[in-house]
Design brief:
With about 240 residues, this protein is an all-alpha fold. It has six helices and no strands.
Amino acid sequence: MDNQGESEHIVKSYEQELGRLKALLTQMGGMVEAQAANASRALVEHNATAAGYAVQDDLAVDRLEREITDFAIRLLALRQPMAADLRLIVSSMKIAADLERIGDYAANVAKRSLVLNDMAVPFSLSGVANMCRLVQENLKNTVDAVGEGNADRAIEVWRSDIMIDDVYSAIFREQITYMMEDPRNITPCTHLLFMAKNLERMGDHATNIAETVYYAITGETMPSDRPKGESSFTVNRQHGV
């Protein structure tokens, strides 16, 4: 093989490796999406089977995170990437770590749902159901942003996290009220608060991924202060954010 042919082969092999890295991230994102969906069904629909799926899939997610990290380290060592490729490979490890944490929180929600199902609860699950929906929407957009390399979707996730925070705050106030009214409500309300907090953290990690995706694509960082409450920021991709 002449030098030109060898060079073309190396470039093609490298591109295939980058493609595999992206495919692994997309696969892991899909698995975590399924975990989150099952955790939501376990909580809102009192579905013990869905809870079981959310918990058992956590091991597979953990294995995939290790595979992505090992593969990324290998690429860094052997390919010595630069610029956008370097950002992609380093970012893939951060994205995998955040996805793994989302999976952990989903499993926690599923486990607590099994306990809550056996209790008499004084509250409606409509608020937490809404929170589950928002978290799943943000997670889907996050995974799509990873798979498509789409900075606009990443911005959408970053801006949308405030809605999850607002719902969590409302649930927190509601549960505190129930606990103050009757001490018998303390145990079920506490379980629900822990689950709501896990959902809120799932949203935070989805936003972490969105920030990482945006940086990997553009080389720019989002503001360190995320939107809170009614605040909003204008993100201008041409001039940074």
